Amino acid sequence: MKQYVATFFSHFGALRFQRLCTKLGYEAQLAPVPRSLSSSCGTCVLFKTAELDEGKLQPLLTPELEQLVLDENGYKLLYEAEE
Asked: For 34-50, how does the pLDDT look when each residue is reduced to its tens digit (9 = 90+)?
């Protein structure tokens, strides 16, 4: 299992994403955003799953998502919303 961090533009977006992850069968929890990542709302979702391929990644790209990173020996950016 790999750990991912998703940040959001709003707290509501983080809550909806956490529920989506749970529905998809991922272990997910709300948490404060790590200092080395930035976020508009300060809340992130930490979730664990096997490696995300294109098919598994697409349903997670919600409008509220600011960025999605893989937490593995530092952060690897997988997605960043356009401003």
From this structure: 888 876 788 999 999 98
- Is it true that domain 2-80 has CATH number 2.40.128? no
Tokens of 33: 């955003």
Query: Would you list the DSSP string of 8-36?
Result: ESSHHHHHHHHHHHHHTT-EEEEEEPPTT
Point out which residues pair with 1 in neighbouring strands.
Answer: none
pTM (2 decimals)? 0.91
Domain edges within the chain: 2-80
58, 66, 82, 83 from 47: Cα distances, Å: 16, 15, 23, 24
